[in-house]
Amino acid sequence: MNCHRPGLEKVDITIPSQVKAVLEREQPNCIIHAAAERAPDKVENKYDETRNLNVTASENLATLARSVGSRIIYISTDYVFDGSHPPYRVDDVPEPLNKYGITKLEGEKAVLAGHPDAAVLRVPILYGPVEYLDESAVTTLLRTVQASDTPTTVSNYEKRYPMHVAAVADIVCQLVTKLLQNPSLNGIFQWSGQEQLTKYDMCVAIAEVLSLQHSHITPDNKPAPGAPRPYDSRMDNSRLEELNISAHVPFKEGIRECLQEWVSQEQ
Asked: In which pathway does it act (predicted)?
C-alpha cells in the first residue's frame, strides 16, 4: 500500500526479462514478493489475467531468484482456506472457496516448486496508510461510515483478523533475518491478526475512534454477496512464534492512524 514513492524502480514482474535484468544487477539476498491482484470479485471476472500475475509471474520470479542465489518470501493469504475449521495450521490442507484463493494457492505451490528454499507467508486482510481509500478493503469502510445520510447494511458474517501493514513489515523483517541465518529454514509460515472483527465491527470501530456516527449502519448476518468468502479463516501463528517472531498493532490504534488525515482533510 502507498507504494508509489521516489526512488523506487518500476518493474513489470509478468515480463521475465525485466525481472532477470534487475536481479542480476542487484543480486539481492532476499526478495519479498507481494505483488498480486488481491480483490476476490475482480479475480472472479478476470481469472486468466489474474492467474498470469498471481501464479505464472510468481513461478518465474522464484526460478530467477534461485538462479541468482536469492531467498524469496511469497506473500499469500488466509483465503487459501474455506473457513469451516479454524484455526488453521501451516500443514492443514487448503481448500479455497474462490478463484482468488485458488490463484494464491497455485502461486504458493509454483514458488515452492521453483525454489526449494522459498518461504511462503500467509497473512489476513491488510490495512495501512493509503493513497486512496479503496486501496484497502478496510480503509474503504470509512466511506460507508461517513455516509451518515444513507442507511446501509454491512456484513456481520465473515470473521476477519485485520493486520496493519507495519506489523506485516515487522514480521517479514524478522523472518528475513531468520532465513539468512538458517539456510535450511523454508516452507510455509502464517501470521493472523489478534482481533476477530467482522466488517460491521470494523465500521463501528472506525466510527468510535474518529468520533463519527454509525447509527445508519445495520449489521447483515448473511454471507456477503459476490465471490464466496471463508466464514472464519483464522490462522495458527505457532510456527513463527516458535522462532520468537511476532508483531501486533491494535486495530483501533492502527485504523485511527491511517484514517485521521482523511477526516481532517474534509473538515
From this structure: Amino-acid biosynthesis; S-adenosyl-L-methionine biosynthesis; S-adenosyl-L-methionine from L-methionine: step 1/1
